[in-house]
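Bug #77: duplicate submission created two jobs. Keeping one. Sequence:
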Amino acid sequence: MKIDNSGNAVAAYSGQSKLARRDTSAPAAGSGSAPTDSVSINPLASSISALSAQADTTPAFDAAKVDAIKNAIAAGTFSVNPDKIADSLIASTQELLNQ
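Kept job's structure:
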């Protein structure tokens, strides 16, 4: 390839043609008729859609339980069980490591 003083590449690319256009008027080789499109929906998609709708209507947390804990803390009767917390942390860590 040679570059002239104007910065344009010459010679090496001058003989190359543009991309050939595909002839869309002729049918593809081996097919006797025009291609048709078809769509099929997986039954799993409707199950996922139903679960998504159910999740949208279910509250993210139990408001009654939150109120009960809030009242217990305010009254000074809420107790923390460190053994239960530790067991839950270990179980969730093991679950994450097994994935």
